[in-house]
Amino acid sequence: MLTVSTINVNGLRAAAKKGYLSWLETSSADVVCLQEVRAEPDELPSDVHSPTGWHGVYAPSSLKGRAGVGIMSRVEPSSVRVGFGTAEFESSGRYVEIELPNVVVGSLYLPSGDVGTEKQDEKDRFMAAFLPYLVSLREKAAVSGREVLVCGDWNIAHQQADLKNWRTNQKESGFLPYEREWMTSVFASGYNDVVRALHPDVTGPYSWWSYRGKAFDNDSGWRIDYHVATDGLAARASSAVVERAATYAERWSDHAPVTVVYSD
């Protein structure tokens, strides 16, 4: 059995002070994918970088205080890869992956975008480069008998059921028609939306809520944190839960952990 969580921590050092470490201590996860770490590895206290019983790998951004991804695993990885072979994004803190005995796990923080700005252009370039990499990753992993799981903040709500206020967000980054089509292309390339497959007929379950207004209290959220898995691993998924905080005050990020159990 393999249990994997993914969480955009919104600053790992801040999250550690607010409750991340307490959550990790009680987590049953074997692997935890982190996004928006926002710190160099040597800036993290040892109990945050690699808590007892965990192996931590990190890919910081060259822009200080921005982005950054990491993966915590209870088993030491056999290899680590930072980036996906596209020069523009090699040091952007957007992607890191590890090899475990039967699975390659990636932690992704896809750019958020902003319509009509360079941020959206960057997101578009990332998407154009990342999909071919996903295809090649799946093909190479299959040769060695491994499955692939790419977890993280994809910053796109794929379907209307993936965000509360979809009608008013159709011209906003994260729910643009071509972004949604791109996600469809990902899921047509040999990958699966694990959480949606286990929750086919519901709205959500949302994983991000704005800090503004009453978004969290009203459950006015977005489902943008995905487990994207190859067929063999996706077929083993037995449960998927968004670990939503009980109250606004108990949140340690504007995202919540998304945890999936992959049974034998």
UniProtKB/TrEMBL annotation:
<keyword id="KW-0479">Metal-binding</keyword>
<dbReference type="InterPro" id="IPR005135">
    <property type="entry name" value="Endo/exonuclease/phosphatase"/>
</dbReference>
<keyword id="KW-0378">Hydrolase</keyword>
<keyword id="KW-0460">Magnesium</keyword>
<dbReference type="Pfam" id="PF03372">
    <property type="entry name" value="Exo_endo_phos"/>
</dbReference>
<dbReference type="InterPro" id="IPR037493">
    <property type="entry name" value="ExoIII-like"/>
</dbReference>
<dbReference type="InterPro" id="IPR004808">
    <property type="entry name" value="AP_endonuc_1"/>
</dbReference>
<comment type="similarity">
    <text>Belongs to the DNA repair enzymes AP/ExoA family.</text>
</comment>
<dbReference type="InterPro" id="IPR036691">
    <property type="entry name" value="Endo/exonu/phosph_ase_sf"/>
</dbReference>
<dbReference type="GO" id="GO:0008311">
    <property type="term" value="F:double-stranded DNA 3'-5' DNA exonuclease activity"/>
</dbReference>
<protein>
    <submittedName>
        <fullName>Exodeoxyribonuclease III</fullName>
        <ecNumber>3.1.11.2</ecNumber>
    </submittedName>
</protein>
<feature type="domain" description="Endonuclease/exonuclease/phosphatase">
    <location>
        <begin position="6"/>
        <end position="255"/>
    </location>
</feature>
